[in-house]
Amino acid sequence: MTPPSDSLPNGLTHLDSQGRANMVDVSDKRSTQREAQAQAWVRMRPETLRLIQSDGHPKGDVFAVARIAGIMAAKKTSELIPLCHTLLLSSINIELKACAPDSVKIVGTCRVEGQTGVELEALTAVSVAALTLYDMCKAVDRGMVIDDVRLLSKHGGRSGHFKYEDAQ
Length: 168
What we know:
The protein has helices spanning about 45-55, 60-75, 75-80, 120-135; strands at about 30-45, 90-100, 105-115, 145-155, 160-165. By secondary structure, the protein is of the alpha+beta class. α2 (about 60-75) runs antiparallel to α4 (about 120-135).
């Protein structure tokens, strides 16, 4: 991949030739189908996971609320991350899966036809879904841990494909 003319030799594209932060000009890039998938894990006490799965949580369906929060966050990524482009996402999917005895795996997939990728949208989606799960359960388990937030895969665009090889 040839770096844009306003990037430094190190390939960091959000810096201009003087080293100042700027929004990357994508106007010369071709619009293509792009997809990114990210994950996050939330570790908790086994009894917390059992409470979530029992549908007995006083705040309602924890997974449904976390899923909606992740979707909403993906749509607002450009408002949260400086210099991130606003994208008209064509698809956002958030899956939450209880992994016995004490974990929830969150996987988010975002798609767009556009001039720039959706990696940040997928990462933002799973991060906010995990934070929402934490928020809804913190009264019973303040020791929950959000970890392993990472990009799993990316397809489309000039930089090609990426797949995290050790994905769980």
